[in-house]
Amino acid sequence: MVIFVNQVNIYLKIKTQMSNSENSGCFGVLTIVIYALAWIGTGIIAWNWVKPNSFGRAILFILAWSILGYITQIIGGLIIAGIAKLME
Questions:
Q1: Cα distances (angstroms) measured from residue 67 to each of 13, 15, 23, 72
Q2: Residues 6 or more apart from 27 whose CB is under 8 A from it?
Q3: pLDDT value, residue 1
Q4: Higher model confidence: residue 53 or residue 27?
Q5: d(CA 31, CA 11)
Q6: What gap in Å lies between CA 77 and CA 9, rounded to an integer?
Q7: 40-83 pLDDT, tens per residue?
Q8: pLDDT tier for residue 28 given thresholds of 50, 70 and 90
Q9: N or C terminus of the chain: which is more exposed, having fewer CB within 10 Å?
Q10: What pLDDT score does 32 carry?
Q11: What is the spatial distance between Cα 85 and Cα 88, in angstroms, rounded to a whole number?
């Protein structure tokens, strides 16, 4: 839940910064694509890193995936916000 709320807050901040720009639709789509790629990519990385074959390893996988995904999502959001700021 916290991750979703954070994602919405970052998206709204980017959307607000770009409200007067003709590139706002492009950056909105780019934000969604980067977030999806971040979570899918970190899921694959965490799966190969932890290799869950028991319940404990599955819990460790979920924990690793959530930490890696959150960090990647924040970095992606900052990159998009920086690009949007440069495009003003």
A1: 22, 25, 31, 9
A2: 14, 18, 21, 80, 83, 84, 87
A3: 47
A4: 53
A5: 7
A6: 10
A7: 999 999 999 999 999 999 999 999 999 999 999 999 888 888 88
A8: confident
A9: N
A10: 87
A11: 5
Token output for 59: 């819990």
Tokens standing for residue 22:
């003709």
Residue-wise DSSP of 43-71:
HHHHHHHH---SHHHHHHHHHHHHHHHHH
Distance of CA 62 to CAs 5, 7, 51, 56, 66, Å? 19, 18, 11, 10, 6
Distance CA 59, CA 26 (A): 37
Q: Six-digit token pair at 52?
A: 């869950």
Q: Measure the CA–CA gap between 46 and 57, rounded to whole angstroms.
A: 11
